[in-house]
Amino acid sequence: KQWYQRRVAITAGIEGGDMGQESGAEEAEEKEEEEEPLPKFLEEVTLKQEAAVREQILLEMAPIHEKILTDIEEVVQFEEGIKRPYFHVKELERAQLKNWKNYLNFVMGKGDNDRTRVLFERCLIACAFYEGFWIKYSTFMRAIDKAATSDIYRRACLTHLVKKPQIHLAWAAFEEENGNIEDARGALEHINKSLPGLVSVTLRQAHLERRAGSKDAGLQFLKKALDDCKNKDTRDFLAGKYVSYLQFVMKDVETAKNFIMDHLEENQKNKRMYARLMELELNPTTTPPDCEKMTKIFDLALNSSLSDEEKTLFSHRKMAFLEEFSNDISSIIEAQNEHSKTYKKSLPTPLAEEKRYPAIRDKPMENNKNHPPATNNWWIRGADRSSSGGFRGGDGPQQGYGFEGYNNYQQQDHYSDRKHPGQGMNNQYHNQSGYYQGMNQAAYQQQYQQWYNQYAHQYNAQGAGGGGGSHYNSRGY
Question: Among 278, 424, 447, 457, which residue is least crowded by beta carbons within 10 Å?
């Protein structure tokens, strides 16, 4: 690098002192070399000419070499984080998925499309079964190459993600947006064969036909879904969509009323159908709502000071409204992306979740008879047996082997020392507690070990009452 900087300084004409004399001499030699033409054949090249050519090549390659070294330094941490670059049916760890995501975001931010495509292809070898990476790849390629984007969707839906509805819906929307109605129909039919009866797929099929001008075909999709549906709540939801399609698309209010009456004969406790029938009587218009005005109202709510949870409800309603009434598939895709972002913002952060649901181990127990409250931790749920009346000590109080963190563990430890001083598994665990705390293991392993110790002491206590406790203590259980 110093040699390269010196050469640049010389060619720039920096003069002064010894540097000026040296540079002048070198410039004179370079002029002589430049005046001497190169021969036609390689065998006739002199050593001096060969050295000059080598120097010129190195001079031109030095900036490229520096750039490559800089690029390597930027991505070396991501490359070292890739532990499994090959495909395997076993799921990847969260750290691996996060590393791939951060790596892709970093390279995409550089603006080098070719390099980004190569990295996506590398990523999809190991992450072929992860829908999010395929959607990310197709979204990136959408503005670059539409034909390549269509191929990406085909590879994902027809080979790797046969039973993933979200990417099939994205594929259908992409093909519809580009005027390929038949390809959009094929994408929806493919997922419908793999997972029949999905409401989102049925609605997209019906309104795809509506936007394509085949209104009767869209009605048939809804009718077939109603006939095949066995779930009561889903059937009521589809019935409402069927009535709305009859009113605003087919312009047939009377048929909609007759359908509701027939539906009420089958289920007289359906409150939604009664309310829908009243709406038809109060407002029998067949003119659909103005999508532009309704979108402004939705945006007004989404840009307000409402909470993220409330905004999520409005964004979902906007997405459903545009799916049902809009003729522009681009606006539907935009509403879906907006709802996805709003939904992610509404998700609670780990800190907020901890404040809302504090950890069970942080709550002190009043006494050993209290069994822990309801919790989502399987190891605590599975260990809660203190109210079942089992494992009663020979001459002590009932001891449940449910636990509530270290507080309960300490109480059980004192109880064990009173019943069997210096014996049992609990002392062994207590002596090894520093070892277990130093391990980088998940918390549930420690919790499970505590539960086992308490269970063993309850068994020892029962054995002490019946004369069998010494047998287990002698074995160190």
Answer: 278
